[in-house]
Design goal:
alpha+beta, 15% strand, elongated, 164 residues
Length: 164
């Protein structure tokens, strides 16, 4: 996998993330506010949640406008670092992981800049326990980080030649 494939994966994630959010917003905002939670199965709902914090709602209570700017700038800096890492990466798992994280991060930045918050809508629950609502971008970021960690733990690396 190469730099171009990593960028293509990022673009695919970004497009899928924004398309699902666009479709969800059109559907949910046409519903009365009291009907913005739609049970799908005994363990999964579709719900409209505006996340003004970071992953899984952390820091959600602060100033939405300030959070949107601060978290967008932070994400932009991280994405720049990831693009540099992607340019240098040679391992397929790392390249895929970085592409997933870049696409997800950009998708959430777009939401913050457009709405002042990230659109979350996937709500899983079991036995009275709810995982915080998330979206396609969040899932891509988590999977991407997982791939990078797996490669770091299990990836085969050649030892550098020792110079005497």
């Amino acid at each position: 996998m190469s730099f171009g494939r990593g960028i293509a994966l990022a673009i695919l994630v970004l497009a899928l993330d924004q398309a699902t959010k666009w479709g969800l917003l059109g559907w949910m905002l046409a519903r009365p506010p009291g009907e913005r939670l739609v049970p799908v199965t005994s363990f999964f709902n579709v719900v409209l949640v505006w996340n003004r914090g970071v992953s899984f709602g952390m820091f959600n209570g602060g100033d939405g406008g300030l959070n949107a700017v601060a978290f967008s700038v932070l994400a932009a800096v991280i994405v720049i670092g990831l693009v540099i890492w992607l340019w240098r990466a040679t391992q397929g798992l790392v390249i895929a992981g970085i592409g997933l994280v870049i696409g997800g991060a950009i998708g959430n930045v777009i939401d913050r800049l457009r709405f002042g918050a990230v659109v979350d809508f996937l709500d899983f629950h079991a036995a009275g326990w709810h995982w915080p609502a998330f979206n396609v971008a969040d899932a891509a970021i988590c999977i991407g980080v997982g791939l990078i960690v797996i490669d770091g733990l299990l990836g085969r690396r050649e030892m550098p030649n020792k110079v005497a």
